[in-house]
Amino acid sequence: MKPTRLSTLLALAVVTGVAGYAIDAVLASRQAPTLLLAVPLGVTLAFIGVAVVAMARPIRQHARDGAGRRHPVDPLYATRVVVLAKAASLCGALFTGFGAGLVVYLLTRAVVPSLGSTLPNVVAVGGGVVLTVCALVAERMCVAPPEDDDDRHGPGTGSTTLD
User: Fold this and answer.
1) Whether the Cβ atoms of residue 93 and residue 7 lie closer than 8 Å to each other
2) Cβ 153 vs Cβ 107: under 8 Å
3) Segment 23-38 mean pLDDT
4) How far apart are CA 7 and CA 129, in angstroms?
């Protein structure tokens, strides 16, 4: 599996930011209340990011300490953590972009919005950013270290040893 590319995350954030801005504009043009993301959403996104890093930490320690020679890392657990980190980074980019679109729409209005309508969206954007960054860190923590050259020499590799 290839690492998550920054360009993919930025594209998702821009597309969902435009969507958030457009949805709020359409709602306001119909005299409907604009969208308001909840503060617990941002806090929950941040906690999920911290949990993903906590799940990746044992894999990183195991690979770094050389304990893999005695007890190999469970490949299913490592794969699940990497897939979770990749999905979390994509979701974090989606929430960041959408929330940023809502905030931009509120701040570009002729009337200055109240803190009660802006702060929850800003907290959600912050939670999305934390989730994205933590997920990218966790994904990098699960990268397998390169194997030793001594272990790779075998028949047919072109290396010879003299005794």
Assistant:
1) no
2) no
3) 92
4) 15
